[in-house]
Backbone:
């Protein structure tokens, strides 16, 4: 009993603070400011590549508005020719970027620009595929949660991410039933 009353007394002292004054919780702003500064530094470190790639991305996505003198030498002549081509400028306004590079820009004339565009299209294409895959996995896991084991998840994801359509009727016709002996 003595220890229970001592615990109550300690708890009361802690809640009310020393000397009977109420303990007020204050926010340690300096601690949070330092934490935010560390996060900012970490972002600057991790994403510094994006700052370096900004000009390359602008060349890819806005070839008609980027200044010629800001791009690397191997792109400059092609970019001047591109920016002075009225038909391509009109196409740029009317069609999606992929279609512009694919259908309107001649790879023999714009060799460096087209190769540069392929690099960035492949980058975004793989990101899109990855996002699609995780979306499918989330859907499969929520729908089949009670029956799903790791090997079933792998098989289900392989089927759901395949672009090949199964011909169920043909598969059933090819299936041989078990024959009794």
Residues:
């Amino acid at each position: 009993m003595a220890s229970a009353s001592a615990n109550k007394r300690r708890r009361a002292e802690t809640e009310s603070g020393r000397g009977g004054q109420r303990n007020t919780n204050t926010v340690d702003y300096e601690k949070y400011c330092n934490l935010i500064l560390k996060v900012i530094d970490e972002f600057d470190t991790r994403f510094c590549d994006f700052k370096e790639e900004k000009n390359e991305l602008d060349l890819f996505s806005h070839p008609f508005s980027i200044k010629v003198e800001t791009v690397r030498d191997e792109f400059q002549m092609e970019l001047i020719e591109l920016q002075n081509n009225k038909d391509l400028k009109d196409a740029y306004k009317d069609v999606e970027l992929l279609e512009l590079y694919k259908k309107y820009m001649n790879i023999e004339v714009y060799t460096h620009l087209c190769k540069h565009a392929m690099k960035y299209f492949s980058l975004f294409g793989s990101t899109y595929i990855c996002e699609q895959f995780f979306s499918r996995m989330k859907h499969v896991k929520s729908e089949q949660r009670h029956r799903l084991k790791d090997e079933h998840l792998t098989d289900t994801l392989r089927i759901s991410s395949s672009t090949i359509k199964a011909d169920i009727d043909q598969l059933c016709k090819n299936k041989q039933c078990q024959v009794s002996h």
